[in-house]
Specification:
The chain is 48% helix and 9% strand. It is α/β, with parallel strands linked by helices. Strand 4 (135-137) and strand 5 form a beta hairpin.
Length: 418
């Protein structure tokens, strides 16, 4: 396929981008379309996998037949066999009549099974039989039916890992994987593709809603292309439409298009750092819902540190069982992996930041909490513990938690103000 044919294909199916991996996927789809090979499309959610089976069907000899797209993950496991293969009247509760399945409906055409990794093991066995010899039976029937369907599958999970963990049949995996077409994630594509897609989505949305066009400054483009887009094209489309809908003016009002800077665009791009942090079990209110990013980062750093300490403790306990020096479990719990007891109040001299903190809140190691701790309470506890371990040294405690000294002093001031 030459460059002109490839661009014609992209234009026909509204595919935007010049990335080499994207072009290779489209070329492969066009090459296998005239055959009856089973195709497996892989890639993350939101990368546009649904475009590939449409291309294959339209370029195949089955293009005059039906094309059905089914999301296997959206069908309950109790009814998916009946949906795919049909059912007889009275075969189960609610089966008030005979019903054709998708394999019967798509006979002579193409059936696209999206999220194939969500199929139950029983359905996987039935699908394997159809792929091998075109045979199936309706639910509640003993009659063998025949169908001639081109099956194209897609998944956003690692099927080889699913096979290794027993969640997906190995024989079905190899049967599906005759030809694999991988759609690249948006972050793997050339930076120019991200800008092209944003402009396309923004322009279309503005035209559909009678709004003026917007453009991005050079700094905003760098921000746009520097984000990793975990939701891929679907997420980029949502952001482009949100920015256009809120920041643009109705068409005809004002002169020219509006240029969006990085400070405005940043409002619409999620903060990934915050999304990695734990959330409270119930919606927060008041000051708790407005926790600063430093507090959240402190909790995240402490959780990572705790994980390392637990791993070290496991290793030491393992060595203990093999004949090395034993560690007292009580001391290991109280003082961390080194088994060192935390300094007492007397050792701290009754002064300093740790003492000021203790004046505001008494705490017992053995006292079990009577209610779930909120994120803010957990934050306060982490600071107090860090001050204890560092004998009231704010600088050392801040370094341990990965936050600024200002945050600790602010926490102390808040305690004293209560």
């Amino acid at each position: 396929m030459d460059a002109q044919e490839l661009q014609t294909l992209k234009n026909k199916y509204d595919i935007i981008g010049n990335d080499a991996a994207l072009s290779r996927a489209l070329e492969t789809a066009a090459a296998v379309a005239p055959t009856n090979l089973t195709v497996l499309i892989t890639g993350e959610s939101g990368v546009g996998k649904e475009k590939i089976p449409q291309i294959i069907h339209q370029l195949s000899r089955r293009r005059t037949g039906k094309y059905l797209a089914i999301n296997c993950g959206a069908i309950p496991s109790g009814t998916i066999n009946a949906e795919l293969f049909g059912h007889e009247k009275g075969s189960f509760t609610g089966a008030i009549g005979e019903r054709k399945g998708y394999f019967e409906e798509a006979n002579g055409g193409t059936l696209f099974l999206d999220e194939i990794g969500e199929l139950p093991k029983e359905t996987q066995a039935l699908l394997l039989r159809v792929l091998q010899n075109g045979e199936y039976m309706k639910v509640g029937s003993s009659k063998v039916e025949k169908t001639d369907v081109r099956v194209i599958c897609a998944t956003n999970v690692n099927l080889s890992y699913a096979v290794a963990t027993g969640k997906f049949r190995e024989d079905l995996y190899y049967r599906l994987n005759a030809i694999e077409i991988r759609m690249p994630a948006l972050r793997e594509r050339t930076k120019g593709d991200i800008e092209l897609l944003f402009r396309k989505f923004s322009s279309d949305f503005a035209e559909q809603n009678g709004l003026g066009k917007i453009s991005l400054s050079h700094e905003a483009i760098r921000l746009l292309t520097g984000y990793r887009w975990p939701g891929n094209i679907r997420q980029l489309k949502n952001v482009a439409e949100a920015v256009t809908g809120i920041e643009s003016r109705p068409a005809g009002i004002g002169a020219g298009r509006i240029e969006i800077g990085p400070e405005v665009l940043a409002r619409y791009i999620p903060n990934e750092q915050d999304s990695m942090l734990p959330a409270s079990a119930t919606p927060g209110t008041g000051s708790e819902s407005s926790m600063s990013s430093e507090d959240k980062q402190m909790i995240f750093n402490a959780l990572l540190k705790l994980k390392r300490e637990v791993d070290d403790l496991k290793e030491q306990l393992k060595n203990t069982t093999s004949g090395t020096a034993a560690i007292s479990p009580a001391r290991a719990y109280t003082g961390g992996v080194t088994g060192v007891e935390p300094p007492s109040n007397s050792a701290l001299g009754g002064g300093g930041a740790e003492a000021e903190w203790q004046e505001q809140e008494e705490f017992s190691e053995t006292q079990a909490p009577t209610e779930p701790l909120s994120i803010r309470k957990a934050s306060d506890g982490l600071i107090r513990k860090a001050l204890e371990r560092n004998q009231g040294n704010v600088k050392a405690a801040a370094k341990e938690l990965g936050i600024s000294e200002r945050t600790i002093y602010r926490k102390i001031a808040e305690k004293k103000g209560k």
